[in-house]
């Protein structure tokens, strides 16, 4: 931890006060044009060319021999013509900018800053500066009467520039409020954004930086309620807001690829027909395109390079009817809730868009680099994310900031849950621990109690792979399920015993320490990797379009092209691929645990072998509804309907071995599997669930006949066959096939 500069009060233990509020001790109440301590607002005057001029003092060593830099005093002009005269003390809580009907309270956390300057911008880009006069602990704050929504603003922070200690204050760089609800403009690839490595860069970044916007958060939720779908009934649909509807021919063109497009009645009806209970959206937090991608003419399609975590990504808003991105997003949530569908957000709190040290100074680096990021002994970033930096979530102030952001999405946007990208970072102290302070804070906050929590349980740092080790109530992406089920069906090198463990919610990973079967979020595919169509069509990745000479993306995908690389294959190969798709989908949707379906897998969507399409915002990633396999979609929907009928899959209770009320594991003769069959037998078996449902599995390359348990068994949708309309005690099972029967 970097010591605070002399005279800075210690940070009290952080906690919450009201929506979006961070309480760090007593603070003056929010002033509304009161007669308290005030400071005049000082403008930056236009230069001779009409641009914004900023007086920057020469860089010189400070008293300790370190580089120091400050912005010279602004020139005073009449600041009262727009109703903004003076700034008063205001309040420390809530953080960010908050409009109260007559003005705006501004509040910013920085432990090491010596001076915090609020910068206001008019429609012509002219800047006026004023110091935040209030201080409560390490929070600076002030209130400006007369400021209205849509006011543009940012901050300049003064303090030491001491790279060895991780301190990189540079008031020449306008920085974004980390609690901003909206931004105007995009982050360009521009040298003025560089803060400097060994000494501060003097170029003013304000002309090219996005500006924060004051937002009026009022919204009429009407009768909206959280669907609160039980975990045992949950079926997740991972989707990208733009990619889901961008090519949908039946949705109005102006709405395609937007929040409004996802909320369109046709799309909602499709999701209900499919039977999913939650959509898990790739990041809708406002993100930036990395400079490298901009130079290549590409975009960050997935959106994991988050710039403003409280702000709704405006690129996914249709803009129709003059609605803001925030309101259009909330309309979408309300429409999905009315259909009983939850909204889970994929959120990024492991790194920021500031990247590595040569990366741009945009927000946290210029606000308090040493507080927000994990640093090494020399002041460089600990890159445990592969993205250049790692957020220090064990710092109480950073923990409070993250929780405050989650509360915004929960309270203000009615989001039902969160999936945490590179979730191991949540528990780093710096080693990963299950009792990390952040986990306790999430579990104990009453307003977050109803959320669904899902972790991607790995990062690339030391001890980064933590599958099975997250505390309850977290669910986890289970890559063991993905890899073992692909290998079982496509390569034949997984025995029945391992298949059964994955089928039974990976009890070897999640069966202890108070966790439920739902903790295993089962997946065959996700945004990161092959689509299901490509899993059965490609042996190799084909990522040339990404501009990295096909070096990016995973090399070992446990895929099988069935004898031909790519889509143009003879009919017998295409049929084999269809059989494998159906067997894999049935395994995913009829296993114990929480199934997650990648949007488009039910339509046969292909990315032409690209297994890392993070920068492909085009027809490669957008779902092609015209060419979609509707039979496969109907098959998938029928699987989900069947799943919801089987108590053993929906009760979210661990199965007891050889309990006919839950599960019986049988061989092809309808008898209990022997130890030899479990570990070395052919990959054929029967699984009896809840007494009345029988799964018949033949993962070999040869057809066989199976003897069914006593009783009358009939194939159930979507597995009916014309040649077997009635009951049977024997069943002929084709190669690489799964069937489900019901007892009559």
Q: Largest beta sheet, briefly?
A: 8 strands, parallel, barrel
Spans of at least 5 consecutive residues with low confidence: 1-40, 42-79
Helical amount among residues, as a percent range?
10-25%
How many helical elements? 16
- Chain-averaged pLDDT: 90
Oligomer: single chain
The best one-word shape is elongated
User: What's the alpha carbon Rg, rounded to whole Å?
Assistant: 28 Å
Strand percentage: 15-25%
- The number of distinct β-strands equals 35
Cα-to-Cα separation, first versus last residue: 67 Å
Computed structural class: alpha+beta
Going across the major beta sheet, what is the strand order? 19-20-23-24-25-26-27-28
Strand and helix layout:
Elements: E1 15-16, E2 22-23, E3 38-40, E4 42-43, E5 60-61, E6 67-68, E7 86-88, E8 96-99, E9 103-109, E10 115-121, E11 127-131, E12 134-136, E13 139-145, E14 152-158, E15 161-162, E16 167-168, E17 183-184, E18 211-213, E19 236-239, H1 241-245, H2 259-263, H3 265-274, E20 278-281, E21 285-287, H4 291-295, E22 306-312, H5 325-338, E23 342-347, H6 364-372, H7 396-412, E24 417-420, H8 437-444, E25 452-455, E26 475-478, H9 479-490, H10 496-503, H11 507-510, E27 520-523, H12 532-535, H13 571-589, E28 594-598, H14 630-643, H15 647-650, E29 663-666, H16 675-680, E30 684-689, E31 693-698, E32 704-707, E33 713-715, E34 730-733, E35 737-743
Parallel strand pairs: 19-20, 19-28, 20-23, 23-24, 24-25, 25-26, 26-27, 27-28
Antiparallel strand pairs: 1-2, 3-7, 4-11, 5-6, 7-13, 8-9, 9-13, 10-11, 10-14, 12-13, 14-18, 15-16, 17-18, 21-22, 29-30, 30-31, 31-35, 32-34, 33-35
